[in-house]
Amino acid sequence: MAHHNEVNHSKINSLTWTNYLNVVLLLTFRLPFAILQTVFSPFIHTANGYNDKPLKRRIGDALMRTASIYLPTPIMQHIVGSGLDQYRRWAAKYQPELGTTVEELPMDFDGGRGEQAHLFWIGPKRTEKVILYFPGGIYMFPVTEMMLKFWRYAQSEWSRQGLEVSIVVLSYSVGSDPDAAFPIQLFQATQALKHLFSIGCKPSDIQIVGDSAGGNLVTQLLSHMVHPCPLPSFVPPLHLPPGIRLRGACMISPWVGLSDPDQWGSTLRTKDYDVTVHQNLREAGEHYINAISNINIPHELSQLIPYAEPVLAPDYWYLDLQNSVVDRVLVTAGKEERLFDQIEVFFRCKIKPYHLDAILLVQGGGIHDDIIMDFEISETPLRNELTPVVLEWMAQGFRM
């Protein structure tokens, strides 16, 4: 996640000499120093469970964390490119025999505002046992190669067990301009689910999964299905037939407290091993929430906050979640991640009291998006005990 304090958030088409200077300083000084710190860290913080991770993994985390601190958001966005760029590069390397399978979703939000949303298929396109995945990126960055690598690994593991799972990725609008403001992502998530229904996918054969901001988007979609968004011209209602529910909803390190995130506890400021950066989370969260005030609606803006910031929803908000929306819920958090406090409050107060089959998995020594972070520098999990547990939970949902 990129640092963008006092920096113009708008995307750039090419790098300037000052941008290149930032990159050179990162490569020649800051990254080598971060690697050195990582090597010696276990001798200084011996009681920290995070330092039990392989050195290769900890160096990968340090490189990402350091880049996020020192590179402004526009530079990071330029380097990452679009979600379609990431998917095409990944497909060329990891599924060259299939190539890319891209579907465009209707662009009829508010008279056409917003970027074109896409669905990217990992492996063959099928309509049975489907995972709809919402990638993270603080609503500033698209899906990246490490996320696609994680899902291809998961798919291969399930196939090895005789379970053929279809995975489709929603590439939704991101960035700081109005075209990526709430509720465009909720509209696109709703359209994605409706599209799957239209091609023959049964709700009871679909699990929705999201990490970080993608986990936030999962909560938005669940909220919309329980309480239709009071903006029907922006986000049409989405109702399932009586007695029919989605098979599962999984939120990996969900970003649920966007405004004033420090209020939930100390982890936001104290978990320095995490790949997220405190200032970035505050600024990106406040930007996303503040944009809601620009929506011209005949309602109190407070009615929209539970959709974008579920930790602030009324305690009874998800009362009908189990009865009418989803069979099973899984939330994961790393003990060493900055979002741990808000995730724990969200699950304990908003989800668990209203869903009998809801689980919170807390990973000792884990950081934000821990099971995905392995794939930044590896093709397989790096002694990650949480990964097989999460994959088995999803597999069990399809075996029911």
Automatic annotation (TrEMBL):
Where do the TM regions start and end?
A: 20-41
Q: Name one Pfam family in it.
A: Say1_Mug180
Q: Does the keyword Membrane apply?
A: yes
Alphabetized UniProt keyword annotations:
Hydrolase, Membrane, Transmembrane, Transmembrane helix
Under the GO molecular function aspect, what terms does this record hold? hydrolase activity
Q: Which PANTHER family match?
A: AB HYDROLASE SUPERFAMILY PROTEIN C4A8.06C, STERYL ACETYL HYDROLASE MUG81-RELATED
Could you tell me what this protein is called? Alpha/Beta hydrolase protein
The organism that produces this protein has a lineage beginning with: Eukaryota, Fungi, Dikarya, Basidiomycota, Agaricomycotina
